[in-house]
Amino acid sequence: MGIFKIFIPTKSQLTGLCQLQVAIQGRHTKLEMHMTHHVAEIVTFKLAAGVTDADFVALSQQTETFVREQSGFIARWLTKGEDGSWTDYVIWADMAAAKSVAALFPAQPFFGAMMEALDPETTKMRHEEVLWRMSA
Fold first, then answer.
1. Quick one: 22 exposed, middle or buried, by C-beta within 10 A (0-12, 13-18, 19+)?
2. Which are the contacts of 86, defined by CB distance < 8 A and separation ≥ 6?
3. How high is the pLDDT of residue 124?
4. 119 CB burial (10 A radius; 0-12, 13-18, 19+)
5. Mean of the pLDDT values across residues 83-94?
6. How many CA atoms lie within 13 Å of 65's alpha carbon, on the beta-carbon side?
7. Rounded Cα gap, residues 114 and 107, in angstroms
8. Higher confidence at residue 19 or residue 103?
9. Rounded Cα distance, 54 and 59, in Å
10. Is pLDDT at 120 greater than 80 in this prediction?
11. pTM of the model
């Protein structure tokens, strides 16, 4: 009987859109691939009158600890377009994680100040499945 090693990545080590499950049944090992899609939480908005870019970036940084501690968090980017529109992109492991954290967000101490900094007429949030990605 030969000796072999199987590397089983943790969920955070998976860089594709698949999760690897290993089921050991007696002397046989069965590998199954299950497709799961990461989810992009996309919030677009303009800042409220009188709020500077530096003010808003500082407010956003106050959310960092909370967001990083959430199960399923993968990445986040905050961008601003030439027309003054902002986009906050958060990538979650799956839709359940995205919706769970979205439900917790309003109870956080920074929430009120964040909402006051946004122009409510321009603020839109949506969740989308990531179907393909490419990186360097």
1. exposed
2. 44, 45, 46, 47, 56, 78, 79, 80
3. 98
4. middle
5. 98
6. 4
7. 12
8. 103
9. 9
10. yes
11. 0.73
